[in-house]
Amino acid sequence: MTPDPTLVQQSNDFLILGLATTLASVITAAIGGVVAVLVARLNTKATHAATQAEKVAVNLTKSDGKLDAMAKVVDDTHTLVNSNMEKALLVASVALRRVANLTKEPADEAAAEVAEVALVEHRKKQKMVDTGVTIATDSSIEARARKDDQ
Q1: Could you give the CA distance from residue 36 to residue 92 in angstroms, rounded to a whole number?
Q2: Beta carbons of 136 and 143 less than 8 angstroms apart
Q3: For residue 126, which of 85, 97, 96 has the smallest C-alpha distance?
């Protein structure tokens, strides 16, 4: 008995579709993982750069005003770092949300949520900086500068 050619073709089509779907899922998961790692690295570097910029700003303000131009550059650099950080977090959160929506995988959903929370938290902190509100902690640069002056 010869198999029906239509059924054979449909079977082959389903096999190809299944392989393509699996391949797409693997690729999107890999992209999501790479993006998450890159965002984490960028976040670490941006935080370090911002801390260093704040240290320089504190030292510059202690000078006799001779370095005001450099203080402005440091402030502008800090602003630029924060702006770029928001852009990176926005790209990551959108990309990871799209991957999660495509794959419906719990790991992709979790990665998207982490990126979205990071973006919201960054925006909250940036709004505080923009409005002049500071977060007082014992480890803050201002607190250490005051201790040095005493």
Answers
A1: 7
A2: yes
A3: 85
- Per-residue pLDDT reduced to its tens digit, 9-30: 777 777 787 778 888 778 887 8
Give the residue carrying structure tokens 């902190």. Answer: 125
**CA dihedral over 117, 38, 108, 96, signed as positive or negative:** positive
Q: Give rounded-to-5 percent helix, strand, coil for the chain.
A: 85, 0, 15
Between CA 26 and CA 20 the distance in angstroms is 10
Q: What is the pLDDT of residues 45-89, one digit of tens each?
A: 888 888 888 887 777 677 656 667 777 777 777 777 777 888 888
Instruction: Report the amino acid identity of residue 125.
Output: K
The domain ranges of the chain are: 52-150
Q: Find, among 128, 49, 133, the residue nearest to 85 by Cα.
A: 49
